[in-house]
Amino acid sequence: MFPVHRLRRLRRTSTLRSMVQETRLHPSRWVLPLFVHEDPSPKTPIPSMPGHFRWSVDSLPEIVETALERGVKAFILFGIPASKDDTGTGAYMENGVVPLALRRLRRYFDVQPVLLADVCMCEYTTHGHCGIFDGDSVDNDATLKLLGKAAVAYAEAGADMVAPSAMMDGQVQAIRNALDEAKFSNVAIMAYAAKYASCFYGPFRDAAGSTPAFGDRRGYQMAPPNAQEALTEIALDVAEGADILMVKPALPYLDIIHAARKTMSLPLAAYQVSGEFSMIKAACEKGWLEEPRAVYETLTAIHRAGADMVLTYFAIQAAQWLNDGTFDRFA
Ligand code: PBG
Hints:
This protein has helices spanning 14-19, 60-70, 97-109, 140-156, 171-181, 202-208, 228-240, 254-263, 274-285, 291-305, 315-323, and strands spanning 30-37, 43-45, 53-56, 74-80, 114-119, 133-134, 137-138, 161-164, 188-195, 244-248, 268-272, 309-312. The protein is of the alpha/beta class. The model has no long low-confidence stretch (mean pLDDT 97).
């Protein structure tokens, strides 16, 4: 008790504070999401995500190169096809935009970057839902077959890992089976295990053109009030063969990240989603927040809650601030 205990003793100088710092940021723990389109234009800005672009297959190495130079080594690709249909053919075509991008990056960089491919139907379907329809509802089991095909197409094109985000029941098992049958038993699965039906995906849907044409995703994504259910989702994905578990979004769901960390031993990822990025950007543009501090504090919070890895649109910028000493000023 006071006056014997004085916690301020270890807060006196920045070197003392650094010595007792419990959570440290490092770019090797970040994954940069990238949008790749089939458009001939090299890159087009995404208005709701300042500093981010839809890249073409040929211009993609440029951003990957920049990230690698800063120490960011993992990337997750999202495809924007030239045309969509009811069954999302572009998601699993051998020459779809994501397989083309993966082959391009593998030729350019060989083994160095860790390449992940998101596996979902919503960017490729005219209706913008994450599965295909039977009548007026998303047909879970018919969708599983297509997710498996997509995963194999990405593995063939050089993905190290696939990341199913459709929130179909059994998707991890279906993908594991499809990969193993196609002799890709070494390709890993990062499971979007607890993915909530969130307003924070808004800017992403702008970027990917994947806003549902009707209805919403509450029939397959999780309800924000539920935490126990997240642990069930996560346990099922472990049983189905996930290699890495993910919670998404990150900041509004730190309790879920923490609970997953306490109960599971597999590596845990969290996705700081587009809306989390854009709201910080918008506040900083107005001068209401200081961007490096906001990025430092939110990434630290996500790691502190228990995430081993963070998927973040700030990856390159944060790595820069870590390398040039900007973040040290906050320690
Ligand atoms: C595809 C998918 C989405 C995101 C990742 N994969 C959109 C959605 O579910 O509507 C969102 C990522 C972000 O907002 O940054 N299903």
